Each structure stands twice: as structure tokens, then as C-alpha cells.
Amino acid sequence: MNQLDLLFARLSRSTFRSRFRLGAKEQQYCRDKGADTIDQHAADFIARRLAPAFPVNDGKQTPMRGHPVFIAQHATATCCRGCLAKWHHIPQGEALTAEQQHYIVAVIHHWLVLQMNPKA
Q1: pTM score > 0.70 for this model?
Q2: pLDDT of residue 61
Q3: N or C: which end of the chain has fewer CB within 10 A?
Q4: Residue 120 has what pLDDT?
Q5: Rounded distance, CA 64 to CA 82, Å?
């Protein structure tokens, strides 16, 4: 199992994390915009909302709906610095590196791909 498989196995055991799903509207948004655009949105959200060492309103900065990336962030525990520390072992109180930001976008992307391509 690779790192993402292990992470997603852990996330699947969380009642809170596993309840998140993309609705028809969010799925259509993903189809309309395409993966590259959605990944760019994720990168922008992470850079603005999570990357600072002490984000504004940390723990409350990610809406529960309104964009597929926001839903994915809650499902993957990439919604705040506390969740990043607990689930991804990314320390709080330090600005995120470019590598950490890339990792977070990859986690979000992976979840969105799984949501857009459910197993039969």
C-alpha cells in the first residue's frame, strides 16, 4: 500500500470524514471545469487559507459546502492546521512548504477522482 492508500484507509474509519460526498451539482462543476482548473482552485485555497503559520480563523476557515474542494478538504482532513497536524503529521505554527502544499493538493485531487469515478 502506498502513502495515499494508507491515509484513505484511515480516513474511511472516521464516521465524520467518511460522510462527505460530492453532490450532483459539485460533480457537474468538476466535469465542467476539469481537473486542472479544480487542482488550481485547490492550490489557491491552500496557499491563501492554510499555508500561513497562523491562518486567520484557523479551524473555521473552510466552508462545509460551496465548492468541491471545500468538501474534499473536510473529507480528507486538510481543512485546518489542527487536522493537518492530527491526520497528516504536518506541524502547526510553521508556514507550509511548497512540497507540503503540493501534497495537500494531491490528497484533495485523489479524493475528488474517487468521488467522480465510484467503484461499481
Answers
A1: yes
A2: 77
A3: C
A4: 57
A5: 16
